[in-house]
Amino acid sequence: MVEDATLNEFHSVEDDPPIDDTAEPEVRPATPTYVYLPRGVACDACGTVTQRRWTVDGDLLCPSCVEW
After folding, report:
1. What is the pLDDT of residue 2?
2. Is residue 9 part of a domain?
3. How many independent structural domains does the chain possess?
4. Domain of 64?
5. Is residue 4 part of a domain?
6. Which of 64, 40, 61 is nearest to 51 (CA)?
7. At 42, which helix (H) or strand (E)?
């Protein structure tokens, strides 16, 4: 019967590149692509009050103004 090999036989921690613990990770806020408001809000392009708006080039647009 063959014995199982350990993971260290294939790769060890000494083979890994060094980790820079001093570097701050870059964190970017999430960008919404869709907004729903039950009371309705005006579309940034046409002014129509709608519950559903999609983000297009920084504006929140109603379904009629979004180019699908």
Report:
1. 64
2. no
3. 1
4. 33-68
5. no
6. 40
7. strand 34-42
Residue 41 located in a structural domain: yes
Backbone angles phi, psi at 26, to 5 degrees: -80, 120
Between CA 7 and CA 13 the distance in angstroms is 10
Does 62 have pLDDT greater than 90? yes
Give tens-digit pLDDT for 10-59.
777 677 778 877 878 889 898 889 999 999 999 999 999 999 999 999 99
In a domain, residue 21? The reply is no
Helix/strand/coil percentages in the chain, nearest 5: 10, 30, 60
Q: CA 48 to CA 50: how far, in whole Å? A: 6
